[in-house]
């Protein structure tokens, strides 16, 4: 049975105590963060963590991010905390930044996918912070979607994937940012960006200087990725996705052409972007890159419900949140990219 707790009008400590108790008992609780919804369990409880992998159908070597509510918890989970980590989190926590550090033995192998490192973040969401605090545990929480599907940005999305399969869903309304956290590996020098996300790389570089971008961020095939999650299919709706990239005017021409061609072949076509291009279905992503990020996963899920055969996505510039948006779109398409 799944309890759904409505917390749309703000933190309710009495109700959160119920959810925190479930976490302590090794149960699964989905909760909102500022990025996307997380599927949470006690990160130090092997059996509970194993259930996250089972529920999501997540490959066992794809490690989880541990969510904390106080900076001092970093020292309970990590062997070393370099100066760069302190400076970064001082500036950006709570917020959409995940840091990878050498792990302590208290963190079970299942949680880190067998890696000797641990990924940690403090979310900027009052419900999430209070839940973590009341549970008294670090909470392991990957995005609350079936593995490979678009991430959830509302409690409805979580219910679509997990109703009846997890103990609790806390409904805190739509998430503010809409793409997952930025993941940075601080065990390397210079640090390595493993996943672009809600905190733009430019902001990080202002604080700690040059960061290396892992080639997998742009879809390059790598044999032994530092972040195993990078090699798996991700964010994909059931429909085929095509991303059209290039200068704005050329992109518009190319999408117009593609929509016409696909419709002539009898396909039901959806467009996500800034205009409809005469497609069968259209989802307006927004007029700023922040809005595009916020609406991206919702748009992909919408297209599946509308039953389209093909989704054509308008590419955005790879600046600020645009780097995360393009990373998600390319992955969602399985790298089916059309250069205009
Ligand atoms: P998700 O929580 O579903 O958004 O995925 C978590 C992301 O963090 C995945 O891309 C993981 O590969 C990455 N991650 C988690 N722990 C580690 C770690 N110890 N080292 C590198 N990447 C990690
Ligand atoms: Mg995920």
TrEMBL record:
One of its GO terms (cellular component) is cytoplasm. Its EC number is 2.7.7.87. Belongs to the SUA5 family. It is found in: Cytoplasm. Keywords: ATP-binding, Cytoplasm, Nucleotide-binding, Nucleotidyltransferase, Transferase, tRNA processing. PROSITE patterns: YRDC. It catalyses: L-threonine + hydrogencarbonate + ATP = L-threonylcarbamoyladenylate + diphosphate + H2O. This is Threonylcarbamoyl-AMP synthase. InterPro entries: DHBP_synth_RibB-like_a/b_dom, Sua5-like_dom, Sua5/YwlC_C, Sua5_C, T(6)A37_SUA5, TC-AMP_synthase_SUA5. NCBIfam families: L-threonylcarbamoyladenylate synthase. ATP binds at residues 58, 62, 117, 143, 151, 195, 235. It comes from Pyrococcus horikoshii. GO terms for biological process: regulation of translational fidelity; tRNA processing. Required for the formation of a threonylcarbamoyl group on adenosine at position 37 (t(6)A37) in tRNAs that read codons beginning with adenine. Gene3D superfamilies: DHBP synthase, Threonylcarbamoyl-AMP synthase, C-terminal domain. L-threonine binds at residues 35, 67, 121, 141, 181. GO terms for molecular function: ATP binding; double-stranded RNA binding; L-threonylcarbamoyladenylate synthase; tRNA binding. The keyword ATP-binding applies. Its main location: cytoplasm. Residues 13-199 form the YrdC-like domain.
